[in-house]
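Onboarding guide, step 5: your first structure request.
Type a short instruction followed by the sequence, for example:

Predict the 3D structure of this protein.
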Amino acid sequence: ERILNWIISKPNPARILDHLESLDAEQLSRLSSLAGLQALKAILQVWNDNQTSNDEEFWQKCLEESGFVLTQVFAFPVVILKDKAYVGGKIATNRGGRIVDFFLKNAITHNAALVEIKTPMTPLLHRPAYRDNTYSISNEVSGAIAQVLSYRHSLMVNYSTLRDGEDREMTFEAFEPAAIVIAGNSARELNSRTKRRSFELFRSQLKHVQLITYDELFAKIAGLVRLLESGDAASEEDTFQEVDWGFREEAPFSPEDDIPF
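The system replies with structure tokens like these:
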């Protein structure tokens, strides 16, 4: 699409089209890859320039316009059906409708997936508790998790009504839908071993929700850029080292400082 828009903007697009027609399949494939690479770099630049933005509507629009970013969250191919999607919940007075930030589905099985976003500035952790040995999760994150679980429940309860609506493009299934919360910046906030442990212990126990931070999401985009630029498969270790996570090594912990597991 970007290439076509560029061609149309030129004074003599016919000459450009003639040249494109002369390209073989391999050259066209490289041209497509180059366009994709530039799109990835563009969204990475948006992330680098706006990491401290606390404007949720900005991130909603950003992820809506660059839908390929959201696909990196899932282990299966997905398509975005709708942003700000209604997933049921209205009562007789037409109030109480639940609106999820992004409504997606598995491109193969058509099973639904829900994504609720906060911002990179959303705090991940609350004040330390239990003699400073661990941190509780923030109210903002726990609230977002409760919210997306409510949306998930509403979607499953109202599945028949929603699926049989007039919009046939919204055809989907609701077999234990995936639910995602995107919030916070781990590199900025999880700057100690105790904080990282508290966060990982919490999210590893989540049953129906996956919690991912913005910097983790965009680190996957950075890995794709590295892969496309090199033309070879990059190792996970190299990809990890490429990203500045902002972590600082602490002194070795002692039993007095940490709960022994």
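Each response can be followed by summary notes, for example: The first strand starts at residue 78 and ends at 86.
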